Amino acid sequence: MLKNRFARVARAAVMACALGAALGGTLLMTGCGKQPPAFSNLDITGNTQFASDFSLPDTSGKIRTLADYKGKVVVLFFGYTHCPDVCPTTMAELSQALQQLGPEDAKRVQVLFVTVDPERDTPQLLAQYVPAFNPSFVGLRPANEEQLAKLAKDFRVYYAKVPGKTPDSYTMDHTAASYVFDTDGKLRLFARDGQGATPWVHDIKLLLD
């Protein structure tokens, strides 16, 4: 069972690396110009392969878009509450990053957890799970499978159900990465999950400057 878990994590990491490599190759061909910031994560500024916004209900049913977080750096994190390793690790790292940023800068950062498992991740469960890592974190839940599929297509996020021993014990393979928007609502970074708090602090500071 442990071996299968590691295999799933490895597959998600490989998918993230492959996407990152493809995007990096695209960006390398954008030509010369103003020297970009030295981000730790992959800079996808100006890349048109992804959606520029989202519209999803939070745990109270209120529809959220980027406009709700104007003036903040927004981290759009895809995961699910039953994730055994990568998701809780990254959420904990993001919480540590906000602590290291200090209270004033932390107020200007919004982490949004988008579930790829709305079948099990009810609004009630998300409302308990997400803020447990940090009170400021917000859970978003696609209203149905069609909305999830469209969102995944728009952001090029992979997800797939992996059957377990019982109908309710399945896991979800998914892209192990997040997307980061700057304070103007522009998509800037593709950030691999499980990288530790330091790269988050470094890149968020650059986006807040």
Automatic annotation (TrEMBL):
Gene3D superfamilies hit by this protein: Glutaredoxin
InterPro entries given in the database record: SCO1/SenC, Thioredoxin-like_sf, Thioredoxin_domain
GO terms, molecular function: metal ion binding
Residues engaged in binding Cu cation: 83, 87, 174
Span of the signal peptide: 1-21
Keywords: Copper, Disulfide bond, Metal-binding, Signal
Disulfide bonds: 83-87
Domain of life according to the entry: Bacteria
Pfam name, any one: SCO1-SenC
Boundaries of every Thioredoxin domain copy: 45-209
Oxidoreductase found in the keyword field: no
Family: Belongs to the SCO1/2 family.
Protein name: Cytochrome c oxidase assembly protein
